[in-house]
Amino acid sequence: MTQATGSASTIRRTVGAVTAMLATTALLGGCGLKSEPTSAPQSGPSASPTVDPKQALLDAVPDGTEGTFKFSGKDSSNTHSGRVDPASKAVEINTTGAPGSDGITTKMSFLLIGEEVWLKAKFSGQPGLPKFPDKWMKLDRTKLAESDTIPAYDGADQGNAGPLIEAATSVKEQSPGQYVGVVDVSTGNAAQVLEEGEAAALGEAAKSVPFTAVVDADKHLTSLTLKIPAAGKAKAYDYVVTYADYGTSPKISVPTGSAATKAPAMAYEMLNG
């Protein structure tokens, strides 16, 4: 995959913006929103031609032909999990933001099926935060101030493994399915995968971020881990992507009945900031 950012990255930005808005309004004495009810061959005479390890890794990144699968991961501020159903152009993404100095924890889930989108949201850590029903709330994109406030289905590679591997300056297969290498996260689409300004803050260290990756016997990527170094006040952390249950994860369907409801005006007020 060659997209600059997956839906998870869009949601990361949305979670950050919503959390910042909630923290600011909470400090002013209230949220300002009305609450509502609730393997490679060995060398030898019979060995196949050598495959470039970087290309082998890129070929292992999910491209939508693998069927449904699950994903999970984490970046500098959020953890993600969900499912991808390429045939339906559908994805379910669950994101939890780490509590900030304000103590607010933000949990947001998006369900995308084609152009349709549903939201779940839960906030804790401060009094007066908005409360939403524990249902999938159907959103109307025309009621949003910015088109990129919520994500659209943009491919199977929700963890952005493709752009990161494309930026690798060295890749080595240590043993069948086990890869190591170095990524320059300051260049191309890779720079857009991290938090805004993060690659720049890393300076020269951004050009040599070590990574490990695992590819299963079916030539599917199952994990990618980048060791992001510390930069200024920002601590070192692992950028992690995992893919699992290729072809066996349940398909994604439209929520119906008591599982769904229309999004209230409060949801649009929050997303529009």
List keywords for this structure.
273 residues; 12-stranded mixed sheet; 6 helices; alpha+beta; 12 strands
Overall, the morphology is: globular
Number of strand segments:
12
Mean pLDDT: 86
Q: SSE order, as H and E?
A: HHEEEEEEHEEHHEEEEH
Poorly predicted ranges: 26-32, 34-41, 43-47
Strand order of the largest sheet: 7-8-9-10-11-1-2-3-4-5-6-12
Q: What is the overall number of helices?
A: 6
Sketch the major β-sheet: 12 strands, mixed
Which class do the helix and strand fractions yield? alpha+beta
- Rg measurement, Å: 20 Å
What does this structure look like?
By secondary structure, the chain is α+β, with helices and mostly antiparallel strands. The chain has helices spanning 7-27, 53-60, 161-166, 190-193, 198-202, 265-272, and strands at 69-74, 78-85, 90-97, 105-113, 116-124, 136-139, 168-175, 178-183, 209-215, 221-228, 237-244, 260-262. Strand 9 (209-215) and strand 10 form a beta hairpin. The longest helix is centred in the first third of the chain and has 21 residues, at 7-27. The two termini are 32 Å apart.
